[in-house]
UniProtKB/TrEMBL annotation:
PANTHER family xrefs: POL PROTEIN (PTHR33064), RIBONUCLEASE H (PTHR33064:SF37)
Protein name as it appears in the record: Reverse transcriptase/retrotransposon-derived protein RNase H-like domain-containing protein
Lineage: Eukaryota, Metazoa, Chordata, Craniata, Vertebrata
Reverse transcriptase/retrotransposon-derived protein RNase H-like domain ranges (all copies): 2-99
Domain of life, per lineage: Eukaryota
Native source species: Pleurodeles waltl
SUPFAM superfamilies attached to this UniProt entry: DNA/RNA polymerases
Length: 190
């Protein structure tokens, strides 16, 4: 270990000895889950308000399954929220939970008709996210900046329905009819 590494290790050790990195959950207070998806991984932090600030209760991270990882960005966020809620349900145990996510998850689940998500997968996410009576979603447009510690500013401001439509629909210049002024005869096998 170099001197720089040793110094960083000592600072980390001292900071961990000063105060607990994670607090014990208090079931009398509501929970807040900050959730995000990056590089096909679900990343989330479970917190509770304690002394006017969010106190960390748990960290969660997991890779999305291969099917969810192949979805477009906003739909991957829906999968990440579903996975994060499943991971934290043992700690939350049905107590009030607000999910902070930089995407319009509820709108994507209720208004999106895409061929990239099967009915079974859509029903699964609707059941986990919208079917839980203790879970409330904070829409991306209402996400307070001071609580947006996990998000980039440009990721917060976008229209999820428009982005999903652009990413999941075929290109408008591709046609299934013959070209009118074609100079070549091209054969495709299959």
């Amino acid at each position: 270990m170099s001197e720089k590494d040793m110094k960083a290790f000592m600072e980390l050790r001292e900071s961990m000895c000063r105060a607990p990195a994670l607090g014990m959950p208090d079931c009398t207070k509501p929970f807040v889950l900050f959730c995000h998806e990056r590089d096909a991984c679900s990343l989330s932090v479970l917190t509770q308000v304690h002394g006017g600030a969010n106190r960390l209760v748990a960290y969660f991270s997991a890779s999305l399954d291969p099917v969810a990882a192949a979805l477009s960005g906003c739909l991957r966020a829906v999968a990440a929220v579903g996975q994060s809620l499943t991971q934290c349900e043992g700690i939350v145990m049905g107590h009030p939970l607000t999910v902070m996510v930089p995407h319009s998850v509820e709108i994507l689940l209720t208004r999106t008709k895409t061929q990239h998500m099967t009915n079974a997968r859509l029903t699964k996410y609707e059941t986990i996210i919208l079917g839980s009576p203790n879970v409330s979603l904070n829409p991306a447009t209402l996400l307070p900046i001071e609580n947006a510690i996990l998000y980039d500013a440009e990721e917060v401001e976008h229209d999820c329905l428009e982005v999903t439509d652009l990413c999941t629909k075929p290109r408008p210049d591709i046609k299934d009819t013959q070209l009118e002024e074609n100079d070549y005869i091209i054969f495709v096998d299959g």
